[in-house]
Write a structure and sequence with these properties.
There is one protein chain. The protein has one domain. Helices cover 65% and strands 0% of the residues. The chain has three helices and no strands. It is elongated, with a radius of gyration of 20 Å.
C-alpha cells in the first residue's frame, strides 16, 4: 500500500470527500493511518467542512418540508 505522499497527494488535493477517501483506502491506494499522520489538520478541516455542509443541507431540507406542509395544509378549511 502507498502512503499519502507516495500517491502524489498534497495537503490541498488530499481534501477529498469522506466517500472518496473511503474508496481510496478501500482500494488500497492510500494507507489511512499514514494519511492521518501526514495530514492531520487537513483531515480535521475536511471533517468539519463536511459536518457544516450536512448541517446546512439538513436545515435546508427541513425548511423545504415545513414550507411544503404549510402550503399543503393552507388550503384546507378548519
Amino acid at each position: 500500500m502507498m502512503i499519502a505522499e507516495e500517491s502524489g497527494l498534497d495537503a490541498n488535493s488530499a481534501m477529498v470527500s469522506g466517500l472518496g477517501l473511503t474508496a481510496l483506502v478501500g482500494f488500497g491506494v492510500i494507507n489511512f493511518e499514514s494519511y492521518l499522520r501526514a495530514y492531520p489538520t487537513s483531515f480535521t478541516l475536511t471533517l468539519n467542512q463536511h459536518k457544516r455542509q450536512l448541517k446546512r443541507l439538513a436545515k435546508k431540507i427541513a425548511n423545504q418540508l415545513l414550507i411544503k406542509v404549510h402550503h399543503d395544509t393552507g388550503d384546507y378549511e378548519t
